[in-house]
Amino acid sequence: MAAAASPHAVRPTDEMVDVLIIGSGASGAAVAWSLAETRMRILCLEQGDWIKPTDFPTNGRDWEARRFADFDISPNRRGRETDYPVNDDNSPMKVANFNGVGGGTVLYTAHFPRMHPSDFRVRTLDGVADDWPIDYWTLEPFFAENDRIMGIAGLAGDPSYPFHQPPMPPVSLGKTGMRYAKALNTLGWHWWPSDIAIATTEYEGRAKCINLGHCTPGCAQGAKASVDITYWPQAIRAGVELRTRCRVREIVTNEHGMAAGVVYYDPSGVERFQPAEVVILAANAVGTARLLLNSASSRFPNGLANSSGLVGRNLMVHPWPQVYGYIDEQVDGDRAPMTVMWSKEFYETDRSRGFIRGYTLQFARGTGPVNEAVTSMAAGRLPWGADHHRAFRTLFYKSLRVGVACEDLPEAHNRVTLDPVLKDSHGIPAPRIDYTVGENTQRMMEHGIARSVEILKAAGATQIHLPPPGILNSPGHLLGTARMGLDPERSVVNERGRTHDVKNLFIVDGSIWVTSGGVNPTSTIQALALYIADQIKERIATLFD
Amino acid sequence: MTHDAGTVLTPAEQRDLRRLAGFMVPASAEYGMPGADDDAIFADIIRSLGRDLADVKKALGMLRELSGGVFADLDEAKAEAAATALLARKGGPITALGRAVLQCYYRDDRVFIALGLEPRPPFPKGHVLEPTDWTILEAVRARPRMWRDVDRREA
After folding, report:
1. Is residue A185 within 8 angstroms of chain B, CB to CB?
2. What would the pLDDT profile of A429-486 be if each residue is shown by its tens digit?
3. B61: closest CA of chain A, how far (Å)
4. Pick from A359, A519, A516: which is nearest to A447 by CA?
5. B122–A58: do the CB atoms touch at under 8 Å?
6. Which parts of chain B are beta strand (E)?
7. Which of B103, B117, B150 sits opposite A65 (nearest CB)?
8. How far is A261 from A271, CA to CA, in rounded Å?
């Protein structure tokens, strides 16, 4: 239980701030940048470190191996001092994240699709889940603003989206992309070069992409738009304070049921109290749910802002099977950004397919030699022993890979709770994930895998490898555990991101998503954060009414 | 000299692992490839076990059970049988063993050169990607709007 009666009686207390943001990732950076113009005193507490460009793996010969070590996408495998453990044993989808300035944008592919207009009206259109209390058009100006600040490359005119104009030209298709494009044209199916957060020209002080290839574990060139090099420098110049290695344990409330501030551990491990007028949570759908549940008190016995009982529930994570195909010539391999293009041919609902909603097909280039060997060995297509070298040459730089990005519908039993045993290095209870793939999603995956096989065959693949049963790519899309809505009994935050229960507590990360769409979420997470910041600025005089 | 058996491989484990690595990825004159038991590659493997150390030790324990003794001392036929039996197994220790060997093997300069690669990290030189002729998109551009205009606003 939080020490609600006297939150800072025995702890050093910091100077009051107007706005306290917890987490410096995609949404925390965006909201900090937007609010900076108010000249309020804004502080962000981040549990991780700044990552220098020279720290990224592509600087060294061990660049591939470090993806299995200090730049692994799993916090459990990575195990940095700044990580917290997650018990995801009871889930086929594992948690991927990064704890540092920039959060998940440090460790993402930079694939940058927006949600589609229909994604905000799932109940109205398809009779399942719920509609969002806002729509695509509410977010449209914030999508555009975010594209400008992050620096997005892409090509205008995609018929699967409302018109938008990315500020930079798209990443070239290369040999791998041309294979996919010709195959999809043969099938008569939609495709388009991806919107991607990679600078294809020099942009706002960032160097252009030189095809280092390993975008996910950080870009040594600085061409990939992680928020530590996009939003944060601007926000800090505008007066926002960002403190690293500060891990928040709980949000403390006062006698009026308002957030009074947070208890956190400073870099030397000292427990401190940081008072704040407004608290904004930006810690992703696992971290935010964990923090709210860890902030239970006598006034909020089931966790903070949890009168609906929905904190932690409706976790959505985008099951993402991948189908591999191998062709008879070497193509791009790992010598360019991994993501190439998308297809929205099966995105909108067609009930004749046997499921509702849909998926994006995402097309990838290959990998380097280590990843090809490790992945192919695990999948059983690369033998040990005398035949190893011959077999490797049939695989290396010859791979095509289609990912099926399935919309994951909200289900209350998919949830984040507090693990009764596992704790982080500060003794704070760690999150536990319980998740099963829904029936609709299962049918969607089967459909997507079958279509992927058709594409790979049309692209000339002679070896095709389906995902082994139960093995799903876990993209780290963590959504839905503090959903947005108008009804306080059926949602955690209102249509402006403010929690129904605590009038000075806002949530801006993927927790507030009502449904998940079938797209990588960063673009929409950031547009939402900018929208909520705008709502705060518009209502600053009556914010707590 | 003493060894902390929990944090490093013992000399006996290192002998077993080196012989096993030679079975896993043998040298090949045909392809001009060293084996994973090569001096430099094996030293890199030992140096780089890191997060996989505990699982690799488990795998070597399994190998010793399959061998009925010291794997490194077995004759060729028995050693090959034990190695084959171990590598046919599934699970975390075998996956970790494979990763530990492959992540070092496939970054060796000689292996890189034999595969036609420059032995260098991606940064700062990068790579060149051929430009795209976007006329390949013409058929897609000609398609009618695909998105559902549910909120009835003009794009």
Report:
1. yes
2. 999 999 999 999 999 999 999 999 999 999 999 999 999 887 778 888 999 999 999 9
3. 19
4. A359
5. yes
6. none
7. B103
8. 13
Mean pLDDT of chain A: 96
What pLDDT, on a 0 to 100 scale, did the predictor assign at position A475? 85
- Residues of A whose CB is below 8 A from B99: 68, 374
- Contact assessment for residue A370 and residue A414, using Cβ atoms and an 8 Å cutoff: no
The type of residue at A479 is L
How remote is the C-alpha of A369 from its chain's centroid? 27
Q: Report which secondary-structure segment, H or E, holds A280.
A: strand A271-281
Q: What is the pLDDT of residues A76-107, one digit of tens each?
A: 999 999 999 999 999 999 999 999 999 999 99
Chain A contacts of B106, Cβ < 8 Å?
64, 368-370, 373
Q: Is the pLDDT of residue B35 over 70?
A: yes
pLDDT band at B149 (very low <50, low <70, confident <90, very high): confident
Q: In chain A, which residues have their Cβ closer than 8 Å to the Cβ of B100?
A: none
Architecture of domain A17-159+196-205+214-313+411-435+476-540: 3-Layer(bba) Sandwich (3.50)
Cβ–Cβ < 8 Å for A444, A358: yes
d(CA A14, CA A17): 9
Which residue among A181, A370, A378 sits closest to B106, beta carbon to beta carbon? A370
Q: How far is CA A111 from the centre of its chain?
A: 10
CB A529 within 8 A of CB A26: yes
Where are chain A's structural domains? 17-159+196-205+214-313+411-435+476-540
Give yes or no for a contact between A246 and A43, defined as CB atoms under 8 angstroms apart.
Answer: no
Task: Tokens for B110, please give them.
Answer: 């000689």
Q: Min CA distance, B95 vs chain A (Å)?
A: 7
CA A40 to chain centre: 28
Q: ipTM of the predicted structure?
A: 0.94
Q: In the prediction, which pLDDT does A472 show?
A: 79
| DSSP states of A151-194 | T-B--TT-TTS-----SBPPPP-HHHHHHHHHHHHHHT---EEP
Contact B130 A172 (CB under 8 A): yes
Residues of chain A with pLDDT under 70: 1-9
Asked if A529 and A105 count as a contact pair (C-beta separation under 8 A), the reply is no
Distance CA A293, CA A304 (A): 6
Q: Residue A194 has what pLDDT?
A: 97
Instruction: Report yes or no: A39 at the B interface, CB cutoff 8 Å.
Output: no
Q: In this model, does residue B80 exceed pLDDT 90?
A: yes
Average pLDDT, integer, range B5-32: 94
Backbone angles phi, psi at A340, to 5 degrees: -115, -55
